Amino acid sequence: MDVFILAHGTDSLERQFFQVPVPARVANELFLQGVKKLTLVVDCEPHTARSALEKTVLSGLELTIEQAPAGVALIDHALALARPDASCAIVLDGCLCSKGFYKALLAQAPAAASAHKVVAQGNSELTCAILLGPGGADAVRSNGGADKLSLLVLPGTSVAVSKDSKKEVERFLIDGLRKTIDSDGVIAYYLMRPVTLRATRLLARTPILPNHVTLLSFAIGMTGVGLVAFGDRWLAALGGLLFFVAATTDCIDGEIARLRYKMSYLGGWLDTFTDDIQTSTCILACGYYQSRTGGGEIWLVLGAVAAAAFVLPQLYVYLDIHRRYHSSDTVDFKFAWEKPSPAIAAETRPSLAGVLKYAFKRDFFTFLFALLIALEAQVVLVAVNLAANVTRAVLVGISAAMSERSKECA
Fold first, then answer.
1. pLDDT by residue (tens digit) across 206-226?
2. Which fold has domain 2-173?
3. What is the spatial distance between Cα 135 and Cα 316, in angstroms, rounded to a whole number?
4. pTM, to two decimals
């Protein structure tokens, strides 16, 4: 499918939300949905458009800039550039759409010589794109222009972009950062995100980068771990609170990265490593606290075993997700017996391994850590983590053995 983005005037190129121009934001969203090449149609000098966008367009996207001849409408020039034997999507100026809309738009397979005005289900009054089947440009001309085309409604939402719509557009973009409860976890969805999204709305306007937030979160978390290990009951409780605050702050780096398209593979691994260092050292700190407050040296040993049982299988998980998916997100890890297709998995009962994997969501266990430390129940925290981490380590070990055996058989 040929994809075109229209941008009228230099104002359209210079209008930014959270430091990203509107055409660059549209281009990046389409690129993240799998579009490798697209054409930006402008009515200014191409070098002016490129200089306005080059620092905010994601690397890997092949962006061609075409200037419409004087007196020729941008949409007419896009129609002239469209290949007659290919379907075509023309994303109109003056609106931004949700990820779901762009995904649905690119998934369409319009019939030959067909042409549609496309709107989002959440805002049916705002035309967002023109979708053409092979030879559809002639259908637009024969119908007397784009305004008279048949209407196609796709899932998703949209918002009008103008010089007076800054608050509405920013709210739309911030709301687009929300994840589902299944993806985020109950604690993150209802408790963390309402706080972090407000912070992100402020921080995304500044030069602060996602990695800066990751390191700040790590510093807060390790301060909390130190208080848990060496403080009295009340300092330990404060440390548990800081540990949860660090986990909450840690949501902001990903939000800024997605909002300003500052995602990076190394940044993802930095986030993963710092999270797991905080988790393992907090378990060890709780064991040390229990040992020095009368529990005996055995609790330091048990804390160390629980921490090791968390770290060692994680090393295998790191290697597996890097090798299989080139990913830094441990949620992508799949046990050898899990179904590869989400559709198939949805039809079967969740396995014990699958339940345990989602029980390890960071929002839940950091909240649980903070609660148990506040109640001076470090002994419970160490015992629960020892049982859970050893169980998970065994499951990861079995999965690794099954994977190796399947490779040998292949």
1. 999 999 999 999 999 999 999
2. Spore Coat Polysaccharide Biosynthesis Protein SpsA; Chain A (3.90.550)
3. 52
4. 0.88
